Automatic annotation (TrEMBL):
CDD domains: PaaI_thioesterase (cd03443). NCBIfam families: unchar_dom_1 (TIGR00369). The lineage of its organism: Bacteria, Pseudomonadati, Pseudomonadota, Betaproteobacteria, Burkholderiales. This is PaaI family thioesterase. GO terms for molecular function: fatty acyl-CoA hydrolase activity. It comes from Rugamonas apoptosis. Belongs to the thioesterase PaaI family. Pfam families: 4HBT. Residues 91-167 form the Thioesterase domain. InterPro entries: ACOT13, HotDog_dom_sf, PAAI_dom, Thioestr_dom. Keywords: Hydrolase.
Length: 180
Protein backbone atom coordinates (compact mmCIF):
# COMPACT_ATOMS: atom_id res chain seq x y z
CA UNK A 1 0.00 0.00 0.00
CA UNK A 2 2.85 2.42 0.79
CA UNK A 3 4.36 1.82 -2.67
CA UNK A 4 1.03 2.73 -4.29
CA UNK A 5 0.77 5.89 -2.20
CA UNK A 6 4.41 6.78 -2.89
CA UNK A 7 3.85 6.33 -6.63
CA UNK A 8 0.73 8.50 -6.53
CA UNK A 9 2.59 11.21 -4.59
CA UNK A 10 5.50 11.09 -7.06
CA UNK A 11 3.07 11.40 -9.97
CA UNK A 12 1.32 14.36 -8.33
CA UNK A 13 4.64 16.01 -7.56
CA UNK A 14 5.77 15.52 -11.16
CA UNK A 15 2.56 17.12 -12.44
CA UNK A 16 2.92 20.02 -10.00
CA UNK A 17 6.53 20.61 -11.05
CA UNK A 18 5.63 20.57 -14.75
CA UNK A 19 2.72 22.98 -14.20
CA UNK A 20 4.92 25.25 -12.07
CA UNK A 21 7.70 25.31 -14.67
CA UNK A 22 5.23 26.14 -17.45
CA UNK A 23 3.60 28.93 -15.43
CA UNK A 24 6.89 30.47 -14.32
CA UNK A 25 8.02 30.58 -17.97
CA UNK A 26 4.92 32.65 -18.84
CA UNK A 27 4.97 35.07 -15.90
CA UNK A 28 6.40 38.54 -16.39
CA UNK A 29 8.44 40.57 -13.95
CA UNK A 30 6.61 41.38 -10.70
CA UNK A 31 4.89 44.72 -10.57
CA UNK A 32 1.55 46.41 -10.18
CA UNK A 33 -1.06 46.74 -12.88
CA UNK A 34 -2.45 50.19 -13.55
CA UNK A 35 -5.86 51.30 -12.28
CA UNK A 36 -7.01 51.43 -15.89
CA UNK A 37 -5.96 47.82 -16.53
CA UNK A 38 -7.75 46.78 -13.37
CA UNK A 39 -10.86 48.83 -14.17
CA UNK A 40 -11.29 47.78 -17.82
CA UNK A 41 -11.05 43.99 -17.30
CA UNK A 42 -13.14 41.48 -15.45
CA UNK A 43 -11.35 39.79 -12.57
CA UNK A 44 -10.92 36.63 -14.60
CA UNK A 45 -9.48 38.61 -17.54
CA UNK A 46 -7.12 40.49 -15.21
CA UNK A 47 -5.82 37.32 -13.55
CA UNK A 48 -5.61 35.63 -16.96
CA UNK A 49 -3.45 38.56 -18.09
CA UNK A 50 -1.07 37.82 -15.22
CA UNK A 51 -1.02 34.09 -16.03
CA UNK A 52 -0.16 34.71 -19.70
CA UNK A 53 2.55 37.29 -18.97
CA UNK A 54 0.60 40.27 -20.30
CA UNK A 55 0.26 41.83 -16.83
CA UNK A 56 2.78 41.71 -13.98
CA UNK A 57 2.34 39.26 -11.10
CA UNK A 58 2.09 40.81 -7.63
CA UNK A 59 5.43 41.53 -5.92
CA UNK A 60 4.26 39.70 -2.77
CA UNK A 61 4.51 36.44 -4.72
CA UNK A 62 8.20 37.02 -5.41
CA UNK A 63 8.84 38.04 -1.80
CA UNK A 64 7.07 34.97 -0.39
CA UNK A 65 8.07 32.55 -3.17
CA UNK A 66 4.67 31.62 -4.56
CA UNK A 67 2.90 32.08 -7.89
CA UNK A 68 -0.40 31.35 -9.62
CA UNK A 69 -0.97 27.92 -11.12
CA UNK A 70 -4.50 28.29 -12.45
CA UNK A 71 -7.51 30.57 -12.32
CA UNK A 72 -11.04 29.91 -13.49
CA UNK A 73 -14.42 31.33 -12.57
CA UNK A 74 -14.78 30.93 -8.80
CA UNK A 75 -11.44 29.15 -8.24
CA UNK A 76 -7.76 30.08 -7.92
CA UNK A 77 -4.72 27.90 -7.19
CA UNK A 78 -1.30 29.15 -6.06
CA UNK A 79 1.85 27.14 -5.35
CA UNK A 80 4.84 27.79 -3.16
CA UNK A 81 7.61 25.91 -1.44
CA UNK A 82 8.21 26.96 2.15
CA UNK A 83 11.87 27.40 2.97
CA UNK A 84 14.09 28.41 5.81
CA UNK A 85 13.65 32.06 4.76
CA UNK A 86 10.02 31.70 5.95
CA UNK A 87 10.98 30.44 9.42
CA UNK A 88 10.04 32.01 12.71
CA UNK A 89 12.49 31.97 15.65
CA UNK A 90 11.11 28.63 16.93
CA UNK A 91 12.30 26.74 13.84
CA UNK A 92 9.24 26.25 11.66
CA UNK A 93 7.55 28.15 8.84
CA UNK A 94 5.85 31.27 10.18
CA UNK A 95 2.05 31.10 10.15
CA UNK A 96 2.06 34.29 8.10
CA UNK A 97 3.30 32.28 5.12
CA UNK A 98 0.18 30.10 5.16
CA UNK A 99 -2.06 33.10 5.88
CA UNK A 100 -0.61 35.10 2.98
CA UNK A 101 -0.83 32.17 0.58
CA UNK A 102 -4.44 31.48 1.61
CA UNK A 103 -5.44 35.17 1.51
CA UNK A 104 -4.11 35.32 -2.05
CA UNK A 105 -5.92 32.17 -3.21
CA UNK A 106 -9.30 33.00 -1.65
CA UNK A 107 -9.17 36.65 -2.67
CA UNK A 108 -8.26 35.78 -6.25
CA UNK A 109 -11.05 33.19 -6.35
CA UNK A 110 -13.46 36.01 -5.55
CA UNK A 111 -11.75 38.31 -8.06
CA UNK A 112 -12.41 35.77 -10.84
CA UNK A 113 -16.15 36.35 -10.41
CA UNK A 114 -16.12 40.15 -10.57
CA UNK A 115 -17.07 42.14 -13.67
CA UNK A 116 -14.94 44.94 -15.09
CA UNK A 117 -15.06 48.02 -12.89
CA UNK A 118 -15.32 46.08 -9.62
CA UNK A 119 -12.60 45.44 -7.08
CA UNK A 120 -12.36 43.75 -3.70
CA UNK A 121 -10.50 43.89 -0.43
CA UNK A 122 -10.29 41.47 2.46
CA UNK A 123 -12.54 42.34 5.40
CA UNK A 124 -11.81 39.19 7.37
CA UNK A 125 -9.51 36.19 7.07
CA UNK A 126 -9.89 33.23 9.42
CA UNK A 127 -7.09 30.67 9.25
CA UNK A 128 -7.03 27.29 10.98
CA UNK A 129 -3.55 25.77 11.18
CA UNK A 130 -3.60 21.97 11.09
CA UNK A 131 0.11 21.17 11.04
CA UNK A 132 3.35 23.08 10.73
CA UNK A 133 5.44 23.39 7.61
CA UNK A 134 9.24 23.22 7.37
CA UNK A 135 11.80 23.57 4.63
CA UNK A 136 11.35 19.81 4.09
CA UNK A 137 7.59 20.00 3.40
CA UNK A 138 8.13 20.51 -0.33
CA UNK A 139 5.71 22.32 -2.60
CA UNK A 140 2.28 23.18 -1.27
CA UNK A 141 -0.80 24.45 -3.04
CA UNK A 142 -3.45 26.83 -1.81
CA UNK A 143 -6.77 26.38 -3.57
CA UNK A 144 -9.41 29.04 -3.09
CA UNK A 145 -13.07 28.49 -3.99
CA UNK A 146 -15.95 30.94 -3.91
CA UNK A 147 -18.80 30.22 -1.53
CA UNK A 148 -20.98 33.25 -2.30
CA UNK A 149 -20.70 36.54 -4.16
CA UNK A 150 -23.24 39.29 -3.62
CA UNK A 151 -23.41 42.95 -4.58
CA UNK A 152 -21.13 44.14 -1.75
CA UNK A 153 -19.85 41.09 0.08
CA UNK A 154 -18.23 37.84 -1.06
CA UNK A 155 -17.17 34.74 0.87
CA UNK A 156 -14.60 32.12 -0.13
CA UNK A 157 -12.79 29.19 1.45
CA UNK A 158 -9.34 27.75 0.85
CA UNK A 159 -7.03 24.90 1.76
CA UNK A 160 -3.27 24.35 1.70
CA UNK A 161 -2.21 20.80 0.86
CA UNK A 162 0.98 19.06 -0.18
CA UNK A 163 1.46 16.52 -2.98
CA UNK A 164 0.32 13.74 -0.61
CA UNK A 165 -2.97 15.57 -0.12
CA UNK A 166 -2.01 16.31 3.49
CA UNK A 167 -3.86 19.36 4.85
CA UNK A 168 -1.72 22.08 6.47
CA UNK A 169 -4.22 24.92 6.89
CA UNK A 170 -7.62 26.09 5.77
CA UNK A 171 -9.27 29.47 5.74
CA UNK A 172 -12.41 31.42 5.10
CA UNK A 173 -12.55 35.01 3.96
CA UNK A 174 -15.11 37.76 3.71
CA UNK A 175 -14.33 40.42 1.11
CA UNK A 176 -15.87 43.81 0.40
CA UNK A 177 -16.76 44.40 -3.25
CA UNK A 178 -16.62 47.99 -4.50
CA UNK A 179 -16.55 50.02 -7.71
CA UNK A 180 -13.09 50.99 -8.94
Amino acid sequence: MDKTKDAATAATLGTWQAEATAMQARLGEPGVGSREQFRERSGLEFLGGISNGELPPAPIGQLMGFFPISVEHGRAVFQGTPGIEHYNPSGSVHGGYAATLLDTAVGCAIHTTLPAGKGYTTLELKVNYIRGMTDKTGPVRAEGKVVSVGGQVAVAEGRITDANGKLYAFATTTCLIFPI
